[in-house]
Amino acid sequence: MQPTPSYPIGTPGQPWGDAERDQWRARQVRQRSHAEDVLRAIDALRSQWDVLPYGEVAYANTHHAPEHFPLQALRSHPWQPGLPSVLVTGGVHGYETSGVHGALRFAQQHAAEFAGRANLLVVPCVSPWAYERIQRWNFDAIDPNRAFKEGSPAQESAALMQLVAQHQAQYGPFAAHIDLHETTDTDESEYRPAVAARDGKVFEPGSIPDGFYLVDDTENPQPAFQQSIIDAVGRVTHIAPADDKNEIIGSPVVAPGVIRYQLKAWGLCASVSGARYTTTTEVYPDSPRATPEQCIAAQVAAVCAAVEFVCGAQ
């Protein structure tokens, strides 16, 4: 058996300090533009949506030039009292491309189908620094999708939590929240080894599911909601099968393509609204059976199915 290679930063068995985090930052290369890909697309939708600035992410230290990223959301115009409200989030992990572009495409091409039936708040790119670097973590080597908790150390997570709290105080609760993600080969080649190195632990290799799956809430399971999304996405791309333990990424499969996590306890984005219907999507863009375009289409199909379900549930 081949030994597991060590991550190139840090000392095995010792958690990272400031020096190691700075080494990690030095490896992150800007590869695309949040302003061009996301903010420009949002700006083009001003005639159809309210564009809602909700803060900015700002990063700098003694070794890095300051960077500022405006945070923007799209809100149904007009917001209509009495209709069910749905929150759509993408890009919590910046490297998960189809979540960002799936949220934008839904806003561009499909949201009008629900006019007069549902109110929508769409946040296409929660983590812009990571989007530009095609990274999972933020500048501080924090995973935003474990940081949706009181006193969050992640600027991105704290800003979204504040947006949702303020929005719900003004307009009332959300009926549903769908959070758009990907599982990629780099989860095994880069991210999970980096987590182990950062935390001073031993990396234990896992496997990547081939296909689309959903993460329901252990504390608030909604099987009919999850099934409606699986049915819709199955017409666009393939659903991830269970492994030989009847699991997907170490969690028992409770229905085809569905597992459950403790969303709030883990600080996951899908817990942020406290909505009755919540889910996290996962597509696999590195699959030989799917293209990046199919992954975006799968995200759009998932959002459409989620909103349609909520409209029918009222």
UniProtKB/TrEMBL annotation:
One of its GO terms (biological process) is proteolysis. It comes from the Bacteria. Residues 30-310 form the Peptidase M14 domain. Keywords: Hydrolase, Metal-binding, Zinc. InterPro entries: AstE_AspA_cat (IPR055438), Peptidase_M14 (IPR000834). One of its GO terms (molecular function) is zinc ion binding. Its cofactor is Zn(2+). The active site is at E282 (proton donor/acceptor). Belongs to the peptidase M14 family. This is Peptidase. It comes from Acidovorax kalamii.
